[in-house]
Amino acid sequence: MTADHVALPPGADPAGLRRAVARAHEEFLVTGCWPSGPPRGVVRDSWQRSRSLGVDPDAATPPDPLPEAELRGYRREHPLAAVLPVIRRLLVETARDDDQVAAVGDGAGRLLWVEGSPSLLTRAERIGFAEGANWAEHAAGTNAPGTALALGQPVQIYASEHFSRPVQPWSCAAAPVRDPGSGAVLGVLDLTGGDHIAAPHALSLVRATVAAVEAELRLLRVGGGSARAAVDGPARLEVLGRDRAAFAWAGERVELSPRHSEIVYLLSRRPRGLTAEALEALLRTGEAAPVTVRAEMSRLRRLLGPLLASRPYRLTAPVAVDADEVRELVAGGALRHAMSRYRGPLLPRSEAPGVVEARVDLECALRAVLRERGGADLLVEWTARPEYADDVEMLQAARDALPPGSPRALMLDARLRRALW
């Protein structure tokens, strides 16, 4: 990396640079010629590529978003999914606390995960900086993730250095992630936000996170053959909005019985396992005996085979659970994304104490954060779900968040009156 890749070196005048680059941007778009002075060479080269690729500088959002269902499957298969906890710990937590957005993209510029400050996530979505969007240079013009991938090097883009005018209020810093064995680019890490993202420390943080991610990928390769193997290994359990959980593993996908749904979910939460007595206590709604649990486990073992072990009862492979993913998104401040993945209550008809506790915990976490940070749209979306149609507290919160006289507010008033009768 050269000094040319740093947007605001020490002593630079941010406001003056923004104005000078904006003038140069307009002159370049009108004449195709370069004025004297800014921008940096790395930005000039990117503007030239963007223009040659036919990027529209006034486009509101990048084209070609990936459908959500396809995105979910693609993310599960991507090597960077295996190191997402490292990225969240080092980059996303900082972004959430410092009014920033952190993004993980693939090697072609497709954004796979976008998390961070809730208020900034909402604003970022308006320019198409969202999960599934394509931010390669050919789609979005000059920007840190796309330009870092084009160069194969870390880079910052400050404000008016963006080729697309709608993106010019933002600044970003990004660096590519490489496979520790082959050196091939696997993806890109990015921080996006205000002018402070153009300062040298932001790029240093991104580069440090990339170094940690590549070290983790190296460990995964040594410990399990490859990072891809680590991604392929976990089974997947879907319990939200379903009375019968969907369980996928080793290329198979089955719908579990209600009792087996409860058992597999409870075991997924306790990797060290449960005795028959402990599992029975989490399942018991009456005076069922432990032998009943043992009979269920015998039937479940015929279905799951070596994935289920005993003494204590436990799952022998990691299990990714959709409820846990929603909980992580809520903790990361990605409320809009959490809501899009929250398909409904966890095993809604289950009365097993261990399941009921988990279901209430997740709902309470969602409700608390929505009341505090969700805004009118997400609050109204919550109350529009049939299972929460009579949630008086959230109906009132949604009503209070809407301006007086709003048609939606009047409808909520009517629903509140009905719910309180």
From TrEMBL:
InterPro entries: GAF, GAF-like_dom_sf, OmpR/PhoB-type_DNA-bd. This is GAF domain-containing protein. Pfam families: GAF. One of its GO terms (molecular function) is DNA binding. Residues 251-315 form the OmpR/PhoB-type domain. It comes from Streptomyces radicis. GO terms for biological process: phosphorelay signal transduction system; regulation of DNA-templated transcription. Keywords: DNA-binding. Transmembrane segments: none annotated.
